[in-house]
Amino acid sequence: MAGEMEQAVDAGALEQRRLAALRECNLLDTERELEYDQLIALAAGVCATPMGFFTLVDEDRQWFKASMGLEVSETSREVSFCSHAIKQTNLFVVEDATEDIRFKENPLVLGGPTIRFYAGMPVAGPGGELIGTVCVADVVPRKLTAEQRSALEILAMQVRTRMEMRIQQKKLQEALSAREELLSELRSSELRFRTFMDNAPFLGYMKDFQGRFLYYNEVMAERFRVSKDQWLGKSVIDLWPGELGESIVRNDREVLEGGRLIERFEETIDEFGQVFSWKSSKFPCLNEKGQMLLGGFSVDVTEDVARQKALEDANLKLEQLATRDGLTGLLNRRALDEKIELEFENVRRHKEPLSIVLLDVDNFKRRNDQFGHASGDQVLRQLGHLVSNTMRVLDTAGRYGGEEIVILLPKTDYEGALLFAKRLHDGIHRERWAIEPVTASLGVATTSATTKDSNRLLAQADDAMYEAKRSGKDRIVAHRDVLERKMAELLYERSA
C-alpha cells in the first residue's frame, strides 16, 4: 500500500513538471503559425493520411497548435490518443482503433471523425518532458513503413527544435550572449531538415512567386538526371513546354494566389518520352522577407496509375464480353433486348419516333451447307463491321438470331428509316465477299400511335422482313407497305 502511494506521489510530481515545461514553451492558445502547419502537412503527406496534428497535452485537454484534415481546436484529454502517446518516448501506433481495447469505445472512433488509425511521436520540451505529439490519423486502418516511421521521428524533432528556437529567441532578447548558440542551433536545424529532404522518398522543392525553382532535393535531381543547381531559376515551362508545363503552372498559381494547400495529380515527361504520374501536395510559405513562396512534394504514382488503367481496361473487356456478340461485335441478344426496352421507354416519355430495321441474310443455310460454317461466320463478321460503319452514334445494333441483325434507330421516322435501310442494302452490294455475293432481306418498322410495346414493333419489322423474303429476297420492305397490301387484299376479297 505504501509503495502504491509513493508511486502516485511520484506520478503526480512528474505530471506537474511536465505541465510546467508545457507552459514554459508559451504555445498554448496562441495563433496558428505557418511553420508548424507546413511540418504537419509534410507529415500527413509522407504518411499518406488525410489528417495530421501537432498537439499539446494540457491538464484536462489536448490543444491543437497545428491541424490538417480536422477543424477542431481542442478535445478532452479523456478521449485523447495523444495522452497515451506521451506515456512513452518512442512512436505510438494504433493500426486499427476498433480492435484496440483502449480505444474501441472512444467517441472519436465511434462518431465523427471515426478515427481508425493513429500514429503519434511524442514531442519533448526543453527539459525532456513529453508535452505533446506530432501525429497523423486516418479513417481506415493502415500500417506505416519504416521510412514513414523515421519521417515522423524526424519531424517531431523538427517541432521540438522549433519550440526550442522560440525559447532561445526569447532568451536572446534578454541576453545577447546567447546569439551564437542560437545561430548554431539554426544551422543544425537546417542541416537536419536538408538531410531529411534529401533522403525522403519523394520529390521536394520550393519556388518563388514567379514559379522559378529556388530549391529541389537530391531525389528530384537524381530522378531527372540534373545537378543540384541546374534547374535553379528555371520555371516549369522552361523544362516542359506545352500543356504538361501549363497544367503544373496552373496548380502553382492556385497555391500562390489562393494561399492554400492543394493536392493534384500531375504529369512530366523525360528525355526518352516516357510519361510519369505524380501526386503533388503544394502549400504556400513565406521567406524571411515575408515574400510568398511555394513549397511542395510529389510522390511517384506512375505504377498506381498504370494498374488503375489496366483494371479499367479489364473491366471494359469484361463488360464487352458480357454484352457483345463474339462473332459480329454487335450487342448480344440479352443486351439488345435491354436496349430495345430502354429506347421504347424513351418513346413513351418523349413522344419521339423509333424505327427498327431487321436484316436477315438470304440463303444463309445453303451457304453454310455448301461452303461450311466458317464461310457463314465470315459473312456475319463482315456484316457486323458494315452495320457498325453505317450507323450513327446514337444508333444501336445487335445480333437477334442466327443470321438476323436488328438495328435500332432512335429519333428516326419512316422516311429516315428507309433511307438508312437503302444505305445498308447498297453497302451489302458494294462489299467484297470472299466466296460469292451476299444479299439480305430488310424489314423496316416505325412506331405509331397504335404501337403499344417493343414486341409489337419487332413483330412488325419481322413481318416486313418475311414479306421481303416472299417477294424474291434481296430487297427492303416497310411494314407500312405490308399493311397496305393486306388492306388491298381484304378489300378485293370483300368485293368479289
Walkthrough of the structure:
With 496 residues, the protein is of the alpha+beta class. A hairpin with a 5-residue loop joins strand 5 (117-124) and strand 6 (130-138). The protein has a 6-stranded antiparallel beta sheet. A 5-stranded antiparallel beta sheet has the order 8-7-11-10-9, sandwiched between helices. Helix 2 packs antiparallel against helix 5. The protein is elongated, with a radius of gyration of 37 Å. The longest helix has 29 residues, at 146-174. The chain has 3 domains: 10-195, GAF domain (Beta-Lactamase), CATH 3.30.450; 202-305, 2-Layer Sandwich (Beta-Lactamase), CATH 3.30.450; 324-495, Reverse transcriptase/Diguanylate cyclase domain (Alpha-Beta Plaits, 2-Layer Sandwich), CATH 3.30.70. Helices cover 48% and strands 21% of the residues. The chain is built from 16 helices and 16 strands.
